[in-house]
Task: structure prediction
Amino acid sequence: MATATAAGLKLTGIDLNYGFVKALDGVDFEVGPGEVVALLGDNGAGKSTLLKVMSGAHRPSAGTIEVGHAPTEFRSPRDASAAGIEMVYQDLALIDAADIATNLTLGREPVRKGFLGWLGILDKKAMRREARHELEALRVTTAPVTRPVEMLSGGQRQVVALARSAVRVTARGQGALLLDEPTAALGYAQTRQVEDLIRRMAEREIAVVVVTHNLPLCFAVADRIVVLNRGRKVADVATSETDNDAVVGWITGAKAPQPGLERMSA
Amino acid sequence: MTMTDQQHDTTSPGTTARGGVTSETRAFPAIDTSGGTGVKVLIFLRNWGILVLWLLLVVIFAFWAAPYFFTLANAALVANAAALTAIFAAAVGFGILSGALDLSIPGSATMAAVVGGLVISGGAPAWLGILAAIAVGIAVGTVNGILVQRGLNPLVVTIASLTVLTGLAQVVSGGLPVTGIDELTWMGSTSYWGIPAPVIVVGIVYLLGWFYLTQTRSGVRVMAVGGNIDAVRRVGIRADGYRVLGFILSGICAAIGGLLVMATTTQASPNPSVDLLFSAITAVALSGMPLTGGRGSLPRVLVGALIIATIASALIIRGIPPYWATIVTGVLLILALAFERFMAGAVAKRLAPPPTATLATAPANPAPTPKEA
Result:
């Protein structure tokens, strides 16, 4: 497990106000390379808002964001992406009609050498080879990389989407991968496949944040669990040191916040 | 039909990433034994059903309209008739592939021809006229593209362009056709080795277009933008530029179409032919290219144009009034759509995994499992 000295992504004292509503109230959050942190909370607890702050979609009212120790400011998702923060959206953001290889290499397509490359002519063999290497590096098999994504099952599509984002984080050498309900639409076996993939991405020193309602998923993949309740962090605990009941208690508010995280009342 | 969870069997942790990928086909041995040849046949039919349909029509007409239909002379006629539809269909196709139905095509074609014709009749060499016409196509495409990229509705924008260009062509030409353009007959009424010149031009356009869309980075991105522009943006590509590029390609094809009409008739009429646009859209729709964009293939569009011309030719030979050709084409279009729908469903059914274990088999409330023991 990564230590605090090698943070992939670190947020400190994040406040976010929607009008008079405090959606986030002094939230500290941290994920290190090779660490999987599950972000839990009931609907409206602020976990999606926090995820949007991490991905640059929302700007916090107060607080700082650090990527690999450098304080940064995200003015837009593009800034976050440039800093190595990759968000895997629920809608997957794949090009349905294009094949797996095209989807995995989009934006950095290999071209032929020399004059042909200058003309922008693709090296299709290299494209397929790179796509296969990337899938193999994560030890996933989906389908032939020449298959259009629209012909894949939900689980296979999710794997392709995850692999594409993982490759981009790895290429930057810093940052984090943000997953929003990565198994929401999947069956049991496919969920297992994605769980394995998340663990393997962590083995490759990628920092992973998983937002989910799914406690089994959370206990299967996460090193650490962070629970939000009404905009405040109420628990930040190693998965090995807690259990299902405790986490449910924090989510619902039935269990008191961890020491040090109590709501400071004036 | 079992997919999933193969990763443990296929790749052992010891295998290096590089070692496994020596051959194209063997990298993923455990996959797709499920669908097998059945899926391959279905995918082939889905992709090339239109070609099969056209070949069937040719065979049927060869008997039905014998002896005049199945001759080289008639083939040249059919090809020539298909060429005009096909060039405008390429214009429609580029637009749709990049995400928008471009209705300004007849306007761009007319304007391009009028400008090109005026340049040539003003005494400039033919190549300059051609260049001027194509520049008009590029200009119209750029304006359309930029307006659409600013968030205006593509249908409305391109209808507006069509209207503006229709008037502008009248203004520029003084309301009269530009006549006596004999300098372009080499790409109009001339034949080379028995092949009409427009057919050769259209063949080259389609070959280049196909190569561009499937083999170049820029072309693949134009298609990707048509399929899912947000996804393209999210990987950090300047997607809007590729959107505009799609409109420019459409404009270029429209301009070439205008030039071909002018070359064949030796004059440039300032009245846009909306009929040509509709047969072009028909050819595109016959090819199975959905109007939602991002998918489809130019070679299939070419076959679509050939089908329309083939039906018209056979009916003319049999002495059947030409309006029957439009009826038959319309019915075929609906059949083609139904076929497309059916095949897509069949392929999806074959490829999708069965609804395997669902929530019932998942551990409903797993004991907290400390992983880091």
